[in-house]
Amino acid sequence: MSSAPPPGTLYLVPAPLDFGCDGETALAEVLPEGTLRRAAQLTHWICENAKSCRAYLKRIDALYPLAAPLQQQQIAELPREVHKKGDHGGKGHASFDARPLLAPLLAGHDMGLTSEAGMPAVADPGSSVVRAAHELGARVLPLVGPVSLLLALAASGLNGQNFAFVGYLPQDADDRSQRIRQLEALALKTGQTQLFIETPYRNAALWQALLHTLRPDTRLAVAAGLTLTQGQVQSRSVRAWQQQALPADKHTPVVFAVGA
Fold first, then answer.
1. What topology does CATH give the domain 9-142?
2. How many other C-beta atoms lie within 10 A of the C-beta of residue 65?
3. What 3-state class would DSSP assign to 43?
4. What are phi and psi of 230, to 5 degrees?
5. pLDDT tens for residues 66-83?
6. Does domain 148-259 match CATH 3.30.950.10?
7. Of 10, 219, 228, 249, whose CB neighbour count within 10 A is largest?
8. What's this model's pTM, rounded to 2 decimal places?
9. Domain assignments of the chain as residue spans, ordered by start
């Protein structure tokens, strides 16, 4: 009587930060060889969007041949509700049970978890998959790659010893202004840098709300198009930002940071 194979390893595979942007960054410039080689060896995947995952694998294949043809890669998508509401529960939502997606892992296959940009499960869905892998006794290993939040923080000049990522701000104008004031008060009182993001086409509206709501002396950093050729990080007081346009177009991802 044969025993079941030990579970495979779940690899967290970071993706380049150029998703949805006008141009692509050469993978070899933003992802280490070890990460790309490991990703090329995987044949079972969990992702946000299968089409985007296949496009990423095609880019990897151009550098390191895939272990199985693209058409034979086993790709499972996280449910759309996980994208919209998150996968940790809270706020009246049940946590998502990702264990069924990890059946190949229990059969002994290594699997890759990837998002459309950056590190999966950080400012992106996927934590439910990681949590389920731990519950199943599988090994979880993150691979090295770009994480926009940390790149932005490092280049902001704001407090990198005490910081928080607070996700997206409310879309309603009044609620958004109230949230901005709350985050500013916390940053000024504790010195804790507050990091947040927005869907690119809403960046301009958030920008105007920040300039009209924050105090003149509060420091505001903007990291746009990180790792892209046109990428830039600027950090100055709100007073100095006044009358300036957001240094990014409606297609470019931006990380905002507020601090003392």
1. Cobalt-precorrin-4 Transmethylase; domain 1 (3.40.1010)
2. 11
3. coil
4. -95, 10
5. 999 999 999 999 987 765
6. yes
7. 10
8. 0.91
9. 9-142, 148-259
